Hints:
- This protein is an alpha/beta fold.
- It is built from 18 helices and 16 strands.
- It has helices spanning 18-25, 70-86, 105-121, 138-144, 162-169, 175-179, 181-188, 198-213, 248-254, 298-313, 331-335, 338-351, 366-371, 395-402, 404-409, 412-431, 433-439, 451-461, and strands at 32-33, 42-49, 52-59, 90-96, 127-136, 148-151, 156-158, 193-194, 260-262, 270-277, 280-287, 318-324, 356-365, 381-384, 389-391, 444-445.
- The strands form two sheets. Strands 1, 2, 3, 4, 5, 6, 7 and 8 form an eight-stranded mixed sheet that branches.
Amino acid sequence: xxLTSVPATTDSVDYRDPELRLRALFDQGTLRLLMPTDDxxxxxxxxxxDGAQVVAFATDATxxxxxxxxxxxxxxxxxxxxxxxxxxxxxxxWHSGGARLAEGVxxxxxxGQVFAAMVRASGRVPQISVVLGPAAGGAAYGPALTDIVVxxxxxxxxxxxxxxxxxxxxxxxxxxxxxxxxxxxRRSGVVHVTTKDDASALATAREVAxxxxxxxxxxPADVPTGAGExxxxxxxxxxxxxxxxxxKPVVNGLLDAPGVELHAKWAPNxxxxxxxxxxxxxGVIANNPLRLGGCLDSTSAEKAARFVRMCDSLGVPLVVLVxxxxxxxxxxxxxxxxxxxxAKLLHAFAEAVVPRVTLVTRKAYGGxxxxxxxxxxxxxxxxxxxxAEIAVMGASAAVNIxxxxxxxxVPHEQRESxxxxxxxxxxxxxxxxSRALEIGVVDDMIKPEETxxxxxxxxxxxxxxxxxxxxxxx
Length: 474
């Protein structure tokens, strides 16, 4: 039985029943309960997702609104510890009002033990949360401590509910506006994927669990190469080098099949996605020129840094597609901590040990060039397409600074001609791929049709590695 076949209300079964939800998560006929059903408010089980072993737990919204007491929290801790011992993903299905009030501080301590178990498991096994209803108080921080959070249309996450907000601050707000998919998917970044309903949320969780639970191996020989044999990645890009475009079709064209984009609406000037490439699970990071021209800013740097650390801690190789004009300037950015938050991305890449390759498709300028998995930060390999530019800044802007006096000294009618000449010279000296090849910061200039094969070969040749750290929610 799937959730889509269960009516919202029925006399025979409650759609919030945790066993029903767990059965919808696992492959049919594979669910095995880890303990008998009881009054604890939590049910835990093991099963298979797309053939991969997975451990999962679900809060029981039919009992005290899913509130967690001592026994329920112990079930969650046992489930997480079981997943760690068996080195398999753990999925939490959340619909809970938080700690049980009647148990007082004992319940608070039990919820704290759940948090401690999640931190122990961080970076050791994939942790996925699916928020199917309100997750309040202590139940809000449970999902927030995990690697990936998926929220269904009815999902809500908040520390304090609307009534408390109104009584303390006087603000008038409902549950959806306070902690629904829109605020957490677009504004806060708490939720990685939002879906319209429970069935879609569980399907997404299944896909993520499969990608992270059965990562596979690279098979470069199976990647088509040559014109007409694979997807033409340049077909998704404009002919004019300064025009904006959506990088998502390029990302999907690179992968074996469209992957799962994380944080699609939060910091959309950078794309982060999980998918399979040459047969193996990879993480993809790509600047998106459709938003803010592809500039890095404080939020996108933080988003990418968390993704890099997650992939590194779980042994997921990285593919980085670079088309970045630099960091977004402005007082707001400086006050919003672009230096502090941008440093997180530098630290994440420099610390990462998983195989990670970079492809410069159009341009990589300034500090953003360094931050996007450059050779100086330890990239496994760096490739560039023939017309790509790598420089401190665009040639035109550089000429305006470096040759300001020379341009001012010539007659106005000769100025544009001289500027074009100087721009060509600047591009040759500092902005082309040739110079980057000479000094070794780019390994090879490749044709677009060779991209998938070259990247796959570089990743396959690199020794497998995995970062020895957790995945702190940056």
